[in-house]
Amino acid sequence: MKRTYSIAIILVILGMVFGITLALKPAQAAEPIIIKVGSPTPLSGPAGPWGQIGIPPSQTWLDLFNKEGFKVGNKTYNFQLINVDDMNTPEGGAAAAKKLIYEDKVKFIVSHWSWNFPSVSAVANQAKVIYLCRTGNEAVPGGVYDPKKQPYTVFANPSHEQFISDIFAIAEAFPNYKRIGINDSTLGKGIGWDYVDRELDKAKIRYHHEWYPPGTQDFAPYITRYNEAGCDIIYGAGDVMAAMLITKQRWEMGFKTWRTGTSGGILDPMMYIGVSGMEASQGFMGQYFANWDFKKTKVDPKKIKRCQEVMEIVSKKQGKPYTYTAWIGWFPHHIEILTQAMQKAGTVDDPDAIMKAIRGGTFDTTIGKFTMSGAKTYGSPIVFGTPGCMSQIKGNKEVYLSEHPLTNLP
Amino acid sequence: MMPFIDYKNMVPKIVIGLLIFAIVLVPVITTNVATLSMLILSGLLAIAVMGFTLVLRTGQFSLGQSAFLAIGGYTSAILTVKLSLPFWPSFLVAGMVSGIVAMLVGMVVLRVGNIYFSIITLALSEIVRIIAQQWEPVTRGTRGLITSPPPPVVLGGFEINFAASPVPYFYLTVCLVAATGLIFWKLGESRMGRSFAGIALNPVLAEHQGIHLMKYRVIAFTVAGVFTGLAGSLYTHFLSVITPYLFGLWQSIQIMIMSIVGGISSLAGGPIIGAVLLYTLGDYLARLETYGIQPLLFGAAVMLVLIFLPKGTGLVDLWERFWRKVVWREEEYEPDTSDD
Amino acid sequence: MPPAGIWIDGLIQSCIYMTMAFGMVLVFSILGILNWAHGQFYMFGAIVVYYTITAWGIPFPISILISGLLMAGLGISVRKLVIDRVKGDLYVGVATISLIFFFEGAASMLFGMQDRGLSTVLPGVINLASFSISYQKVAVLFFTLVVLVAMYIVLNFTKVGLAIRATAQQPDAASLYGVSVGRLSLIVMGIGCGLAAMAGSIMAPVYAVNPFMGRIPMIMSLLAIVIGGIGSLTGAIAGGLMLGFLNSVIAYYLSYLSEVVLFLLVIFILLVRPQGLFGASLK
Q1: What ipTM does the predicted assembly reach?
Q2: pTM for the structure as a whole
Q3: Which residues on A lie below 8 Å from B133 (Cβ)?
Q4: Is the dihedral of CA A70, A75, A78, A84 positive or negative?
């Protein structure tokens, strides 16, 4: 009798322990729900290389991000990135946006390397799809952007403000400069530059503008004009070919002390060295988004680590060191904003609620922590600042040069 | 006696009828936005191509069709966006303005010979683009203008909403293409049309017969300009945006290729075939992932078509030749032409 | 008065436009059509030189000759395979335009779309009193001089040159005199394309190499021909010379408006004197 009794008690205790363990075991993680994000990017044509180079690291970063996933409410979500070639033309942009929205049914559009703000924005806003973008000439006060007509647009990388920050960073790196020569192709001419000029004037920067027809290869006339205007730094607005040729030709014309550079990340130092020559390209400046080198902008170490991991993975995959860093300021940064906004709004489906969370919200991303601003300048606080961090070519490599930290816009 | 059924002439007409029926039904079969967009854009280009072919009828190569698309587009955009005028009047005004410009330019430029006219019109395409780019107060330069689709139209109880889907736009394009095609075809068959052809073949003889060369050339050029301008207006409103770099000399060249490949003997069918086929080909190829393969295959395709087309014809003539040679087993009568 | 550097720069531009225009007119006068893909041979010339120098280390002058010969061969094949099979002037024009796309596509696939440079070829600069000029640009000058002299000698003092000039003026009469017009036109096509290719080769180190670099030289040589007179070899040279200087000087004074001014100038010339400076009678 006593033996049966003890066995029974042991069984009951075992049963209880077993039962408690079962109850405490976390519920089987549900498959994360996938949210589709579309990106119209130039993948073909002359702008193709710049669109293509950002895809491997962005996808790799997204894979790492998705391993963790993010939670809204009590559901876990992952993102899926769909790239569509927009051929860097307005029709291509509109077509790419329409395909993404109506065929691929994306929830958001992120677009960093495109001139296509007007057409993509028109399509996205019509469909109530939130559109995070860099801006161009178009989206400034007086420009094509109208906060009432385009309530779903967010300037995650305001390129004008970025350019202005770059100039400040350059001026701080070379305090004894005489004059900064700014250049751009006529493709980029427009009211946007008035805005830039006003900000530069406010900070008492000395500068001089030149515009050239797209496709120009002979910059001797322009370099001569720069010389006559007293410039000793030439910074372009993004045409890499022009920047390389100006670098080469100014060296050949004898202006060896001038610094040159162009906005947009340095794709690969060897390319510039190949075209302009080793000596001429020393000191060439570009935008630098290697957040592990940031000195004045604080970035969450976890995010830094992930970016460095991505650089390693991509280098290994392509068999040679991958040095381009500008992707860090675009795709991951856009995703972080979206993620945090959705978490704040508590929903993934309501674009109006998400936009409400974005406007004036504070976000912690791969390029720092910032509060959306720009209510006065843009009519709505939907602008993320940007660290104007510059790099230069030293030897064969790209190294940190200077930085002008994120600032809030009025 | 067996009733004589005129197969030769009836079959093409039946086929055309079926095609028209099929076209009207396209939006029923597919509401795929990309496909419809493609058809709409190629249809609008077809109108510009018809303009080119019409001017070619008088013996002149107008490489300036892109300029008229731009003028029509910008006029319509400026009127609706900056002056807030309603869509339909702007649309018509766009055509008118384009036609007036064509007339003025034509009166000055059509005097000079063939190839010089071509080069001048080519330059014109570029100049219009450059003006659009530089004349900022009006056109906002490279930033472009954002246009909206035509407002909803109420027809007998049904509301046609252009913004919701491209289907109404498709039908609108089809209407315009059909209207232009019919008008051009009638023009070609008419007395004036035959005067055009006469001017092209032998200007001296035409003059001797009392045909005023310049008058007819300018008329052709102006009519082409008007309809191309209308197409340009629809083009802008469909794309929702207009920027200078949509146009330019390469677009004019594209239009020329479409006309020639489609067949210059036909004023309506040829351009439509040329435009739709080549545009679709280009679009399809653009989806291929390898970079560079699109222009490569496109160029190769056009060259192959040109190599295999018999002398002096375009794709549109293939049907008739097929019917004659294969079905009727007619022998080709080719006059002894001298080798050049 | 623009500084000396601008004039030198204009001279270099002229050299290239002259060479390209000359080749284009040569082809035009024998074949009767404008080869729209002329600029693509320029581009291929640069690409061939890029590979021979970087991949095989062949010295620059020999590379130029190789690219000239190769592209002459390509030109002849294009002539036989495409142009001869397409009937009618109209269609040949369209065919050569499609060649532009074909070649650009092929080059994009082979070469990639990124710009690459040849800055290691002939590096260094000569510093003169009021301006500097790179060795690469001096090479361009030298090359053009050689080409012009060679062409002059060939056209005026050799049998082949005589045959070319005769055929350009009167093909039927020339064939009566025993000139094989068919074979000659092939040779001329080869020379024209070879010239374009060598122009591209010599310019490759000066700027950058990419598949689309042929477009602007093609348009410029077209403008040069118009200014000089379509169908005239002397016109091509004169036109190229003028265009090069005009381009640089106008860009110096008016920067980006040079585009507009050049087009307006061409239109003006066509309206006022369609046959250009040296052109033959009105077509």
Answers
A1: 0.86
A2: 0.83
A3: 186, 189
A4: negative
